[in-house]
Amino acid sequence: MESKVNYTLVGAFVLILTIALIIFITWLSAGLSTKHYKNFLVIMHESVAGLGVNSSVKYNGVNVGTIKKISLNDQNPEQVRLVLQIEEHTPITEGTTATLNSQGLTGITYLALQGSDSNLNPIPLLAGEKYPIIKSTPSLFLRLDSTLRALNNNMNQITQDINGVLGGENPVLFRKILNNLSITSNHLATQSKRLDAILINTARSTRVFPSLMNTLTQQTLPSTNQVLNNLSIMTDNLLELSDNLRQNPSILIRGQKPPPLGPGEE
Q1: pLDDT per residue over 167-177, tens digit each?
Q2: Which of 20, 44, 103, 161 is in the most buried spot, having the most CB atoms within 10 Å?
Q3: Distance of alpha carbon 3 from alpha carbon 224, whole angstroms
Q4: DSSP-based three-state secondary structure for 93
Q5: Alpha carbon of 197 to those of 52, 177, 203, 208: distances in Å?
Q6: How far apart are CA 177 and CA 66, in angstroms?
């Protein structure tokens, strides 16, 4: 009897120890967390290479959850559907966006969430979807790739345009245009010399003009005024002589009689 009792105690002890060990391992792996999570869906329009199940989800750099599932869209294989497991109190709104990111150029890839103050309404659940959909934005690598492709296309277009301009009869036309520009430039240079000479003469005339005006004012104008006064006196005398001859023509022979003597004159 005693051996049977001992075996029962040993078996019970081993069973309890095994259960305790399982609970301990579970606690170490999960931490017996009391956090609650919500599921969201993100539809990516680019490659998600580097992401995997349990990859980190960060909100403004803070870990808030993990990626629960990754799958392709059956209707559009270019779209990748990511199911996220996010902590319940994370402020996910209609303005929240998801972007593929990495720690450095060659670091660990994760999904970055970023909020916005423009729309703080909760994300509505669309018909036919199991989880609310967080909007996605292009990653840095996708933006760089798109920019480089656009730049390459623009360079190709510019090359084609240059080849089109330089082809055919255009080189001959360019030479004619350059020759005409050269002739016009030489003509303008000649005219410029003439214009300089005109400006120099004008400047000289400007310097002489004050002296000329001074001479006219101080010398020429007074003499001219004197001559005009003399001519006026002569004109008056001639008019008087004409009147006398008209009244007494004998003046030319006899001369003009002296005027009669006044009282007391001899």
Answers
A1: 666 667 767 77
A2: 44
A3: 165
A4: coil
A5: 85, 30, 10, 17
A6: 69
